[in-house]
Design a protein that fits this description.
Largest sheet: 8 strands, mixed
Number of strands: 31
Radius of gyration: 24 Å
Bound molecules: adenosine-5'-monophosphate-propyl ester
Number of helices: 19
Strand order of the largest sheet: 12-11-8-6-7-14-15-24
Length: 632
Amino acid sequence: MTYRIKTFDDYKKVYKKSVEKPEVFWGQQAATFKWHKKWDKVLEWDFKKPDVKWFKGGKLNITENCLDRHLPKRKNDTAIIWEPNDPSQPFVTYTYQELHDEVCRFANALKANGIKKGDRVCFYMPMVPELSIGVLACARIGAIHSVVFAGFSATALADRIKDATCKMVICSDYNARGAKTIPVKEVVDEALKQNCKSIETVIVHKNTGGKVKMKKGRDKWWSDEVSGKRKTCKPTVMNSEDMLFILYTSGSTGKPKGVVHTCGGYMVYTEFSFKNVFQYDRGDVYWCSADIGWITGHSYIIYGPLLAGATSVMFEGVPTYPDAGRFWHICEKHKVNQFYTAPTAIRALMAKGDDLPNHYDLSALKLLGTVGEPINVEAWNWYYEKVGKKKCPIVDTWWQTETGGMMISGMGGLSPMKPTHAGLPLPGIQPCLVTAEGKEIKGNNKEGLLCIKYPWPSMIRTTYGDHERCRQVYFSAFENMYFTGDGARRDKKGLYRIIGRVDDVINVSGHRMGTAEVENAINEHDNVVESAVVGYPHDIKGQGIYAYVIIQNAVKDVNAFRKEVLKVVTKEIGPIAKPDKIQIVSGLPKTRSGKIMRRILRKIASGDTKNLGDTSTLLNPEIVKEVIKGKA
Ligand code: PRX
């Protein structure tokens, strides 16, 4: 097990060491895992290319460290407590031994279906234990998993399957979410009609037992495939820098990119950060309410907790089903000690009943966490007072798909806690603020663009199939630095507060979306000539999506047109990308070089029409008035 920080002084000492002697520090942490061969070199790096190698020459299998390593001493400890969507159904638990056996059985099934080291396997599944089992089974045999959030549309799924040329899709029949049942397999069938030539097999897990069509020769049932398979499977020995997984995320431009994480560094960092930020002790019950379709689920539902030998809750449903007390009911039922969720969920539940958490016994809670977007003071206070009863520290964890693990965060209760501030960097993380020109801003009480100036073990290695894009997006803006895309402020004591994205990425209910991606989807509507999408402040979602559209032919029924646009966006991306507001305009404010002035559109969308700044340099300044007048 990696080092466990126990006091604030300890944190300061560890941090100092981690930046003064990073290789010594991370070498010591890595040494606590099982390696088939020790690394030759802890770190080799060049941000220009970028080329970053951690634990070069080391050989390992991450699942041995998640599972087999714990068996001698804790095989009967609970690894997963699965809470189903329907609270009247029994919950299901897996001990470490049982999880090991299921992972091996499914790994053998994957092998029997021709999956080999390096093959890409796509997952499109709800929050069921089989998703964790499947993901780990891939890692067991060196196959690369690409989990696609099951709320994405068939088109979005097809795009991701094609980009990673996946050989197999693993899905469920249906997804039970609240009162709804979503036909997951049907979406997969639809996606596979869209030229996904690389797919040879579809494995379907029976979740609800609803009817599905199975294509002969291609589609197979999970239960048939694991039937009779052995409970042991020799782990495939991987190089530290072999790919572990691909996870797609949105950026300012173009289609979502496949962020690539590798085996060794990701393993070391997710375990270290999990244990220290959440101050996890053996026997604690930890619950992260995220979806495995996002990085939070990868790092802090699957890998981090299992590497640390933790017991974690996995929840199939939604926070408001059967009522808005569900989260607190689960905390009570499973005596949750550490609870990790998103500000958008906190705001939504707060709005449903200020007093609701008081109806449940939340006395087991020791720590609360948030992730995914800035948390506002009201939500922070409510979480602290009503849920944590003023006795649980809140860790506001800032990180990204690309960072693989938490980067700036309180160390559960040890380091200073300040509402809306993520706090101090984790050991090994060297954040800095820079000006737009790339000059580092030293000293406290300063604001700037957030960069990281030294490698950390779980950082992005490349964007799948397009290394140049990785260089361009993250490493070209500022020399020798990783650029996060976020703006931040460092307060008087050096605590970081994340202000939000400074690029054309918006954060809707903690879901990250590129404005260009949503615009491309809207433009698929036959009557849309051009569109511009911006984020605007939204009470529950953090940011809402505001779309300005230029249409070709006038429409009689604007509401019907809006509905059609929503339908197109749902088809192209999924319901999470549906604009909250759509305004038809005759033009968009543009610079003389033809670039849309989003700054102005953002201000109008947020209702701040008085401080639009200089509009005289626009190609079409007259349009601004019209846009303001017609605000949706
Ligand atoms: O803007 C930051 C915001 O979420 C972005 C990363 O999104 P994603 O890759 O989907 O990962 C989310 C889960 C790790 C960041 O660039 N963000 C994330 N955490 C915080 C945050 N903003 C403010 N405070 C946070 N704690």
